[in-house]
Amino acid sequence: MYKIGIDVGGTNTDAVILDENQQLIHSVKMPTSEDIETGITESLHRVLSETGIDRSKVTHAMLGTTQCTNAIVERKKLAKVGVLRLGYPATASVLPYTAWPEDMVGFLSGKYKLTGGGYEYDGQVLSEINEAEIRETLASWKGEVESVAVVGVFSSLKNDQELAVQKIIEEELGANIPVSISSSVGSVGLIERENATILNAALFKVIAATSDGFEKALEQEGIEHAEIYLCQNDGTLMSLNYARQFPILTIACGPTNSIRGASYLAGLKDAMVLDVGGTTSDIGVLTDGFPRESSLAVDVGGVRTNFRMPDIISIGLGGGSIVREKDGDITIGPDSVGYRISEEALVFGGKTMTTTDIAVRLGMAEIGNPELVAHIPTDFAEKAYKKIADMTEDAIDKMKTSSGSVSLVLVGGGSVIIPDEISGVAQIFRDKNGPVANAIGASISQISGQYEQIYIYSQIEREEALQDAEQKAREQATLAGAVTDSIEVVEVEEIPLAYHPGNATRLRVKVVGNLV
């Protein structure tokens, strides 16, 4: 039995095959194609043809892709969205799409309606929904919107109104129109949750094309019975049907795949991970085997959101970063030769000095022709290497939560440029399969479920609230494709809400389970 993992990065598309013992059989690395689908198809074909495995024994296929991220950043292939906010007149002072990039609003149609609805923080009704007004609005949107986002005030506490409006939408616009409800997408905070819900609604067409394309590519290779999963941004997987409902969860899944792959390769559950690509490096933190999540609002394509994202920082340091000297000072990046490194770097006969050239000059890496960098003065190369170490140390310090030394796992194709000794790092782990850690992470991941809600502990016992949240999280994991009996709780977070009577607490429970 075999698993296939594919991860699409900005520079390269990686594919791996693992056996039933999670051992790596083969890997390939290819340049990412402009349309992405071609790169996925070609990498899949190559990894299968080079191993010659029996296609009927491929039981699972996993894909981590940047398509949803690219669609938002490039404003391409997005659906026309209608936004129904249940919160009039209480929220009329701040309208939907506030502070959005103007071009983005235009791509999404910019249609919205403030209507009655919403709850107080303690679950009391703010105002009732106006069914007639909602039906009238939907009738005017027919043929002009391709999906609908429904956002209710404090729906993270109580989502009855959102669910009722979802039924009305299906009656007016048909059962096939995608509907994104905010209580399933974002966290506490109306505007950020609304923004995340709108983006989720805008991505339905993108995720449909992605999932259909992956299914088609597998069929072309004779893989017809494999379970198919997409990677999500907490380092776990979700079924195709679940991904089609929540495409926004695929955003930033690349770094989390690398973090999970690093955990597997190094055999560590708690460490810092540095994923060095061709242009940038991503630094994340492993906590109990999973990527640490960010607690801050996250900017996605110029839009402020609050759905869960990994705690990652990126720096302009990669294997193709350009090295320059100006007035005695050495600078590295942020510009890079990227995927053209095999043509433009000095070690490959090019004319641009890169960080890889520096590593080869000092004997730290065996790439290309070392004679082509022999002319670089040793003192210059050592200064540049010190600059690489300083940039790495600064980034690691920003991610630390204590002053102690940490373990560091290096992955990614550009990791050869990182020195073996870094201040504040107790031990460094490298693995020969580090360049394809992202695809390995995609293929070994589990299924997760998460539930977050505000509970009023004066109205419900804490233990009862914990049990309720855990049950809801387990249901989410099952929907995403986990084996029910294998699900276990991995994280519980309780945050008391200041200035709210009744001991109001935001409760978040996360569970993980094995693949079906």
Ordered list of secondary-structure elements with their pairings:
Layout: E1 2-8, E2 12-19, E3 24-31, H1 37-51, E4 58-64, H2 67-74, E5 81-86, H3 102-107, E6 111-115, H4 131-141, E7 147-152, H5 160-173, E8 179-181, H6 190-202, H7 204-220, E9 227-231, E10 237-239, H8 240-245, H9 253-266, E11 271-276, E12 281-287, E13 290-291, E14 298-300, E15 303-305, E16 313-315, E17 321-326, E18 329-336, H10 341-344, H11 355-361, H12 378-399, E19 406-411, E20 425-429, H13 437-444, E21 447-456, H14 462-480, E22 488-496, E23 504-513
Parallel strand pairs: 1-4, 4-9, 5-6, 5-7, 7-8, 11-19, 19-20
Antiparallel strand pairs: 1-2, 2-3, 9-10, 11-12, 12-13, 12-16, 14-15, 17-18, 21-23, 22-23
Helix pairs in contact: 1-7, 4-5, 9-13, 11-12
Domain Hydantoinase/oxoprolinase N-terminal: 3-172
Domain Hydantoinase A/oxoprolinase: 193-395
GO molecular function, one term: hydrolase activity
In short:
The chain is α/β, with parallel strands linked by helices and 516 residues long.
Textual characterization of the structure:
With 516 residues, this protein is α/β, with parallel strands linked by helices. It is 32% helix and 26% strand. It has 14 helices and 23 strands. The protein has helices at 37-51, 67-74, 102-107, 131-141, 160-173, 190-202, 204-220, 240-245, 253-266, 341-344, 355-361, 378-399, 437-444, 462-480; strands at 2-8, 12-19, 24-31, 58-64, 81-86, 111-115, 147-152, 179-181, 227-231, 237-239, 271-276, 281-287, 290-291, 298-300, 303-305, 313-315, 321-326, 329-336, 406-411, 425-429, 447-456, 488-496, 504-513. The strands form 6 sheets. The protein has a 6-stranded mixed β-sheet with strand order 3-2-1-4-9-10, sandwiched between helices. Strands 11, 12, 13, 16, 19 and 20 form a 6-stranded mixed β-sheet that branches. A 4-stranded parallel β-sheet has the order 6-5-7-8, with helices on both faces. α9 (253-266) packs across α13 (437-444) and α11 crosses α12 (378-399). The longest helix is centred in the C-terminal third of the chain and has 22 residues, at 378-399. The radius of gyration is 24 Å and the shape is globular. The two termini are 14 Å apart. The mean pLDDT is 88.
